[in-house]
Amino acid sequence: MPAYLPDLSVILGFTLAAAFLTLTPGPDMTFFLGRTVAAGRAAGFAAFAGASAGLVVHATLAALGISALLAASPAAFTVLKVAGCLYLLWLALDAIRNGSAFSLDPTVKRSDPLRRVFLKAVAINLLNPKVIIFFVTFLPQFVGPHEPNATAKLLFLGFWFLVVTVPLTVPLILAADRIAGFLKASPRALRAFDFGFAG
């Protein structure tokens, strides 16, 4: 097994968690579904590509920053893991208490070129502080403080997150009209997403 690969059980656990996160309505999903509904699938895929580009930046910076902290102080890394666990629990409770904020933007312009849609999606992702905080607190839960090749494993998991999002997101874009209508019309469906995310 290559040195950068975590154990299979870690990959499976991370994949499950990443899938729940991907399917939970948030700013990125709202943006690419909204663009798809208003301007077509090409705009939806452009928005998804932009959000993915932002995630590459977040995943890389988070993995390198966590690795630097681990190299400097395994004890501080453990503190980060505990703080990260508490933050993830807070996110779960917040999802149950406050629910999703899924809504489509009624002011979307059909005439926006795909390049502008892509860049706006990058900006939405990069300027969302919750994304970087999530990566900084999420990735350490899957790597031990004394694990060999921790940097490579953190980078692998960060990019594996992107791999997980593709087969889950493409069908959402292809069925955006029906999904948007279903989510808007069914508060119970949104609550199911909330409890799934909390889990």
What can you tell me about this protein's structure?
With 199 residues, this protein is mainly α. The protein has one domain (8-198). It is 78% helix and 0% strand. The chain has 9 helices and no strands. It has helices at residues 8-23, 27-39, 41-72, 74-98, 114-126, 129-138, 150-174, 176-185, 187-198. The longest helix has 32 residues, at 41-72. The radius of gyration is 17 Å and the shape is globular. The chain starts with 7 loop residues before the first helix and ends with a helix. Its main location: membrane. GO terms for molecular function: amino acid transmembrane transporter activity. This is Homoserine/homoserine lactone efflux protein.
Q: Structural class, from secondary structure content?
A: mainly alpha
From the alpha carbons, calculate the radius of gyration and give it in angstroms. Answer: 17 Å
Characterize the quaternary organization of these chains: single chain
Number of strands: 0
What is the number of helices? Answer: 9
Strand content: under 5%
Q: How much helicity do the residues have?
A: over 70%
Distance between the termini: 31 Å
Low-confidence stretches: none
What best-fitting shape do the alpha-carbon axes yield?
globular
**Count of the domains:** 1
Mean pLDDT: 81
Largest sheet: none
Order of helices and strands: HHHHHHHHH
Task: Please describe the topology of this protein.
Layout: H1 8-23, H2 27-39, H3 41-72, H4 74-98, H5 114-126, H6 129-138, H7 150-174, H8 176-185, H9 187-198
Helix pairs in contact: 1-7, 2-3, 2-5, 2-8, 3-4, 3-5, 3-6, 3-7, 4-6, 4-9
